[in-house]
Give the backbone structure.
Amino acid sequence: MRLAVGIPTLNRPEDLKRTIMSILKNSVLPDAIFVADQSDDDTTMRVCEQLEKEAQGVKLVYLRMDRKGLTRARNKILDETIPKYDIIAFLDDDVVLDKEYISEIRKTFLHDDDVTGVTGRMIQKVRKFGLKLDYNIYLFLSYLRAFLRGYFSVAAGIFLPPRVNEYLVNTFPVVNPLRRNLIENAQWLYGGLMSYRTRDLRYKRFDEQLILYGFAEDLIFSYSLWLEGKKLVVNPRALVQHVESPASRLNQDARTLMMIGYRLYALAKFRPKSVVEKLSTKLVNFYLPIMKLSKEQKEEILRVIEKHKDEIFSGNLENLNAEIIRRLTRGTRIDQLY
């Protein structure tokens, strides 16, 4: 079984270096590492040239992207790895792998030939309430808040494997000692640590209408596979620490518009037309109140969503994407950004 790692990256050379070094310290090494670089200068390229000399026989392939976009970078990696490799293991560029991560991913695919996709378990400290919380505690508090707000299908995520509810809120379970070693079926895979059997992706690609960070691109891609009857699982023994980089992050205004707008787009793709309008209201009412935005900013996002909703439901994101870009920069041409 030939396994390649794929890492999209943008202006995070030191984070990427730490990620690749953790890959090379694994007990089982991948056959290749593909880096799809969207950075603004050549620093990342030079880091890859340096790491290639330390790669212990692992093929390190540097792919220079001429246009930015996470989905474009993922598709470039797929084009380069299908059908040469059996497994493509996508990673974020700011993670550190447990030394058994690659081994656990390989074993999961080898054990069950029906498995199309595997995700692992993320370890992370999340800053909330002025404190750095363990990710498990953060999840528990998030589900408790959802329960208190009356969103019971979301709150149920505390007990269930990764699920997607009717209005496309995706959940991830709180890991307790009883499920720490239990491989469970999932309905979606987290993009920072998702691996796929390439034979099932020959005619699948990530949606390049989802620009820049492409919020929910992982959900849309993996959930579509699940809806097609493909088997997705979570292996909690495949551990990855997310050392969240501050570089190349969206501001909260653009992030919120992207989060809600792209999920409305997905609703129209995955749910019957007769219920999309009703579900879209539930989705907006769930996400918008918990965003750290002013009342005026929230009202503006609602105005933009309402203005472009029919286009979004029809599958056209051009004007929504232009609105997202306008929240990121002033005086920069859109074609310079994506």
